[in-house]
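Please, structure for the following, as tokens.
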Amino acid sequence: VKLAKAVLSGGRASLKERTFEVDAVDLQNGSIQLSRDAKGALSPLALLRETKKGKAPAKASKETAAAPFRYKVKNVSGTGLNITFTDRMKEDSPSFNLRKLHFSLANITGPRLLPIPFKIAAGYGKKGNLSASGTVNPVPLKFKGNITLRGIPLADFDAYLPDNLNITLADGTLDTKLAVNLAQAKGSMTGSFRGGIAVRSFYSLDA
């Protein structure tokens, strides 16, 4: 991860009230390299130590139990970010590039997590672009918003076709505008999609 500039503004904390609040975090002009190795481990998650199971900590008494530390970040934004993801789990290690990504998140709270409004826009590859906006709730996972893709090259995703499908994606682009509503319940995702998909200049070869 490389960042030209990171700015934190309007911070305040109270140990007595066990609160921490930040008005804004702004990330500018950076590059982020992400990857998945041949075993399926994602970076930077692979750098984290595995949590060892041990004895459960003793429960604190009512007299000694402290209220959880509460935090709130009013706004997190980023501009001019370039992100590359390389998937080494697939043959030829396909890479995906997001250019000049802009994003904003609002009202990030904890330990009680509330829905987070977000906006994101970026260029993809040489001519494609994508944008999304809506709300996301991390736990349990809920997503409601709109997603727009323009000029996304299909050939970039040839490595993800089923092994028993004997074709190669040689050319074509994907355009789509979707309204998405997803929610996680009992370990599975449910939801709905509404919108349209257009495939242009499609061209495939027999494998």
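The CA atoms of residues 81 and 163 lie 34 Å apart. The first strand starts at residue 2 and ends at 9.
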